[in-house]
Every structure is written in C-alpha cells, then in structure tokens.
Amino acid sequence: MRFSQFGLTTLKEVPADAEIVSHQLMLRAGLIRRLASGLFTWMPLGLRVLRKVEAVVREEMDRAGALELLMPAVQPAELWQESERWDKYGPLLLRMTDRHNRDYCFGPTHEEVITDVARRELRSYKQLPVNFYQIQTKFRDEIRPRFGVMRSREFIMKDAYSFDLDQAGLEESYARMHTAYIAIFERLGLKFRVVDADSGEIGGSRSQEFHVLADSGEDAIAYSDEDNYASNIETASTSSEGINTPAATAQMEKVATPGVRTIKALCDFLNITASDTLKTLIVEGADGPVALVLRGDHDLNAIKAQKLPGVSSPLTMASPESIVKATGCGPGFVGPVGLDIPIIYDHATLGMGDFVCGGNEKDTHYTGVNFGRDVELAESVDIRNVVAGDTTPGGKGSLCITRGIEVGHIFQLGTQYSEAMEATVQNPDGKNQVMSMGCYGIGITRIVGAAIEQNHDDAGIIWPAPLAPFDVVLVPINMRRSDAVKEAAEALYTELREKGFEVLLDDRNVRPGVQFADAELIGIPHRLVISERGLAAGELEYRHRNDSESRDLKREEALELL
Ligand code: ATP
Ligand code: MG
Known about the structure:
This protein is α+β, with helices and mostly antiparallel strands. The chain is about 25% helix and about 25% strand. The chain has 15 helices and 30 strands. α2 (about 45-65) crosses α11 (about 445-455). The longest helix is centred in the first third of the chain and has 21 residues, at about 165-185. The two termini are about 20 Å apart. Adenosine-5'-triphosphate binds near residues 151, 152, 155, 406 and 408.
C-alpha cells in the first residue's frame, strides 16, 4: 500500500474527548473516526487490524468444530417476549417499530434468535452436539459510551451458542470453547487472564471471563498468589477463616458528632482510621428494610448482597424517609447497637473490637463498641468487594488485585432459554428433551482497543505482530528528489510484497521527521529506511518498533531478518 493513496490523515494533537490512551491513539493514527456517541467508522487502516482479529477468531472457532452462520441484526419482539427478556433487558435494548407497528429490537445479543433456529432445525439427539457462531454487529444503548471502541454502542461481537442433550454434554462443549479462547488470545499475542464471573443478565450457572490485563481496565480482577483462583471482583470471595473477635478493652460511650455523616468526616472528627469504624447501609428487603454492616474502609458488593435471601434484587438503597422510619435517625448515624431490623454482617466486621459506629440518634455515634457485649455476635456473610491481602476462598494464600479489560465471556446457560422457548430434541428413549445451551462471546472491536492499551509507548502503538495492519513500513528519504532512493524503494516494495509481506510504502512528499513520527504512531513492527547515504554504503537502516536503536544492515541481511 502506498501511503499517499491510503486516504489516511494522522493527527498530532491528542483529541480532547478521548480519555484513555488507546482511544487517543486510534484517533491519532486514523484507525477510527467518530460518527456520533458510541458510533465509529473503521477507517481502512483500522479495518485491516479488525480483519486480523476476526481471522484468528474464525480459524480457532472452525478448528473447535463450530459452524459459522449469520443471523439478522434486527430481531422481532415476540422472541424476546417468549424468553421474558423484552421487559427485563431495560434501556440497553434499542427498540424500534416498523411501518406495520410491529416491535423489533436491534440485537444486543442473540440467544433468542439462535434458540429459535435450533428448535426449528434440530430434531434428534443424533444431531448434537452442535455449536453455531457468527461475527456480527450488535447494538447496546450503553448509558455512558466511552473509551472509543472499548465501550461503544455499536460493536462487533463473535457470538457462539452450543446445543447439547444434557449438562454433561454442555460441560464438554464449554471446555472446548475454553480451550479455543485460550488459543485465540495466545495467538493474538495478548497478556490475558481467565477469571470466574457473574452470569449477569444472560443467566445460567458457570461463567468465566477473559481479560486483557491493562491498568486502565474497567474491571478489577482478584487472583491468588498461591493457587489457581482468579475471579472478577464482582464475584471474588474471601473466607472467614482466621477471623477472631478480639476481647473488649474499652467501655462503650455515646459521643456527640454534630453533622458527621460520612466515614471520612467521622475519622477526621475522632482522629481514627476508617478500619476502626463500622458502616451500616440500609437496603430494601422482602419484608422491609435490612441493615448491611461492613468495616468502614470496605465497599459493599451489590452482586453478592442482592443474592442474599431477604434482600431485594436488584439491590435498592432505602430512601432517607424509610431509613428514619426503620432506625429513628437519618442516614449517617445508623449503627447496629439496639437496631431492631434484620442485620447482616460482613465477615471482616467480626474481627473488629473497640470500634466506632452510628448511635441511631441524630448527631451521635458510639465509641468502644464490642461484639458479644454491646452487639450480639451474629453469623457473618461475604458481602463486600475483596481487597488485596484478603485470604483466598480456599484459605490458601492471599488475594492480589489487578485490572483488566473483558474481551471474552463464556457461559453455561443450561436450559434457561431452551425451556422458555421449548427447544427440544428427541432423546435416545424417543422422548422430547430440552436441550442444554452454552453461549460464548468475544468483543472483536474491543480487542483492538485493548491490544493498544496493553502495547504502546509515548510515540504510539506497538502492535503485537499478529494484529499489525502492515508487517513492514518502508521509509524512503526524499524519494521525490533522489532517483536512486526512489528506485531502491520501489524495488524493495515489489520484492517484499512478492514474498508475501504486507508493506506500507511511505511515498509522501513530507519531511523525514513526519515519516518517522507517523511510522511510530501507527506502530508497524518493522521499519526500513532507504537513504542516499545508506545506499552508497549498500545498506538499509532497520528498526523494530520495540527496539530503542536502529541498525544498518545489508539489503540481503535485512530481507533475511524479515
Ligand atoms: P461489559 O461488562 O463490559 O459491559 P458484558 O459482560 O455486558 O460487557 P457480554 O454480554 O459478556 O458483555 O458480551 C460479550 C463480549 O462483548 C464482552 O466480553 C465484550 O468483549 C464485548 N462487549 C460487550 N459490550 C460491549 C461494548 N459496549 N462495546 C464493545 N464491546 C462490548
Ligand atoms: Mg460479559
């Protein structure tokens, strides 16, 4: 490809609306252009990268025995009503009406459509297992589209759906996808981790996410320093092992804390640390408000809390009025001492002694509070986000926290959709049996952003070789003025392409400084500079995008190295 004819404009300035480096670099290098909020055009350079991701995914899916098909992006409401997701999915679902006043949505995912395909096509257990996949555009009306293609509204997903006769079959299909996903992310040259995950809106039991590790990742991941345990922070758990309630050393006292409503204000006021305090959150429950009690420096985990019996799902904070009604005081002063509503304690609170908590009276707290004496020692549960240093659920080793970008997600759905939509086959006994389903997604467009987030420096993108839009960039110096340089560059361009390389020839009439800056920004792995001085010595200047220095190589040596 000749740079002069590639319709590519790179940008020197960092675009103001791009918060993270991958978004900035994708705009600056001309990979994408924004059309509207969460909608992007993939420019020719970006599309080359996207196609490489797709190709690897497609090859590994095919290798794993999955069958490619292509379903409509627009889906009829009736199917979503059958699965009962038309009402449940909420504002993420882009709904529309056709000229006959029929309801449709733009598919955010395809469980309903594929289940409809399966119930029509599959008759007998002899046709199982089967795994259908597609690479296709989805739309989710994200509340806050951001980070460019990493959280856009329109994006491309590879979604696969497996059908098996029973749970044992599903587990095999799931394991095959697990293996295929590892092969995909390894081939793409990305550093990643597989973690346990919450099944969320899609439902089902077992689910795991694949995360590209990057500091800017939206997800926090907890993993053990001793065993294989790794989980999204949403579901990461810790045990109560080793937590002992200390003996009281202080007397309980009621202290005036005028206007002190937050943990931070309380710490400043009493000159203590957050871990000396207990915080009490009032949430809605099936039979009225419920108190959730945590150590002051810990964060409530909504996903865990809303799974508790007696707690409303989705988790709903009680209104100030209902807090006053239930506790006799306003938010900020609630505590477990003498509180007459159900109280749920997090494990870590039981390790606390002589602590500070709300006084259940306006502008008051208690200090020197202890379990067993002032507050009944109750059972504890796991309702908070784990933090670094927590013991692993298995009790071996401690948890470390890192950040990741979710690029893949695999689920064992079981019979949730097949039962609701009556997707059955005849089993060996001649009876109808509801099929067991799995679903497996990969964010094709998100991977491009995630790869950059993980691989860049101050000068620009550093593509892992399998994703690079070109293998080699040729930088002839003053080609328009030097016939020798022009001839050498053209000859090399032809030869390299004949050898099967994807080559970008920077034939623009611009200063060498601009050529070098763009080559680094775009991040092509191999760069060859062709100059009059070099040609006189029979040499080309070679530099890999990862190298800090360039080196002179004979033409043959350079070709050999490539
Ligand atoms: P997230 O938690 O990031 O919102 P999700 O868990 O809702 O994603 P899934 O339903 O698991 O997403 O979809 C499968 C894959 O599609 C995700 O792993 C992710 O890589 C990709 N994906 C989901 N939402 C988006 C989005 N808004 N923009 C780009 N890619 C996305
Ligand atoms: Mg997911």
